[in-house]
Amino acid sequence: MKNPHILFVLTILCAFFTTLFSLTFLQGIGFVWKKTTMVNFQKEDIKIDTTSLKNLSASVKSVAKKLSPSVVSIIVSKDIQTYRTDPFGFFYEPSGTVRKKVGGGTGFFVTREGLVLTNKHVVSDPVASYTIITAWWEEFTGKVLSFDPTNDLAIMQTYDVDGKKLTDREPVSFIDNASSVEVGDFLIAIGNALAEFKNTVTFGVISALGRTIEAGDMGTRETELLTGLIQTDAAINPGNSGWPLVNLDGKVIGINTAIASNATGLGFAIPLSEKEVKFLIDSVKKNGAIKRAFVGVQTTSLTHDIAKSMNLGITSGDLIVDSPDAIVTNSPAEKAGLESGDVITEAMGITLENGTTLRDVIKDKIPGDEITLKVWRKQSGKIEVMKLILEER
Questions:
Q1: 5 is catalytic
Q2: FRET pair for 273, CA 20 to 30 Å: which of 32, 133, 172, 362?
């Protein structure tokens, strides 16, 4: 084309109609072009329902406020030998004794008369003295009345400055049945953290039930096998022994007794119930000590493998071990006629399976109580019903 101006105009028109056609076609197939430089993003209005969280927080605060007056710090003190020496270290000889704080723990009132429940290992030193300090900084003298022979528990009596028993304490309340707690239940722990920070409140859940551990006392170096424990992730530290574990209803479900020293968030508590604590208190008041009832047998939990290897006709229960001292002489077990190889399948109507043992069933019984057992007899291969009277250990 000889005229360049006409060529330029035709090129512009061609580009215009091509663009117009393209836009019309894209809109027809559902594509919409929008100008992005001026887009206004509307922020979504997200609403968070905080009612449940506020209710939970209110429950925790209410329980902490209610329980704090009942929780006490236990300070352990004893006379420590002191020595004197010259500046050059030529001589080193005893110079006397000084009373010092050597440890501590936690406890809680279980009667208005000032009976305190704590861990046995907290107050196990026979030459130490014990001071009870309340949330309001009241100081009292604590005296150990009795240790539990089968568990890490102890009961103390609190005395005022005049040596009189207290009469106006607010005791804690307990759940009716320890078997009612479940994994995942919320709980609160209150106590003397690190034996220094009294009435510290922590919060967590029940992580597991029925745990068995071998707990060691760092002071005495003694160990004890503890069974049926509650595992919790509530913050528990050394020196926290004796803390009450409390549900959101304000009722105690257990007492902290041990931590896993090589882990975080692994604490263990002895389950408690109203019935069991009443037994402990009544036993101390009646006998001056905690008297646990016993049957007088050594048993092991029967498993499928053990049952198969022994060709037994049952697969669960407490198997009386094959040992010369499996049956204690003159015990309720011997008097009832139990023998090595017999299997106790049921006690007081409770089947012994899935970790439930005879010890668990009778732990809150007292000497003189009659219990009924169902026993698979090795000699006959049949189940027999047997009754026996529990005696004092």
A1: no
A2: 133
Active-site hit among 241, 283, 316, 331: 241
Active site residue 121: yes
Structural tokens at position 342: 């017999």
Element (H, E) at 60: helix 51-67
Q: Does pLDDT of 189 surpass 80?
A: yes
Sign of CA dihedral 225, 231, 237, 240: negative
Q: What is the mean pLDDT of residues 291-309?
A: 86
Distance CA 119, CA 27 (A): 80
SS3 of 33, please? coil
Give the tens place of pLDDT for each residue, 265-282: 678 888 998 988 998 998
CATH 2.30.42.10 residue ranges of the chain are 293-392
Which position among 70, 146, 148, 152 bears the catalytic label?
A: 152
Topology of domain 70-80+97-159 in CATH is: Thrombin, subunit H (2.40.10)
**Residue 113 near residue 128, CB atoms below 8 Å:** no
Binning pLDDT at 50, 70 and 90, where does residue 38 land? very low
- 3 state SS of 344: strand
Question: For residue 164, what are the contacts with CB-CB under 8 A and spacing of at least 6?
Answer: none
Q: How far apart are CA 234 and CA 178, in angstroms?
A: 19
Is 304 an active-site residue?
Answer: no
Task: Classify domain 178-287 by CATH number.
Answer: 2.40.10.10
> So what's the pLDDT on residue 41?
46
Positive/negative CA dihedral, 381, 384, 386, 392: positive
CA angle, residues 248, 250, 253, in degrees to nearest 5:
85
DSSP letter assigned to residue 32: -
Overall fold of domain 293-392: Pdz3 Domain (2.30.42)
> Which of 70, 121, 318, 342 does the annotation list as catalytic?
121
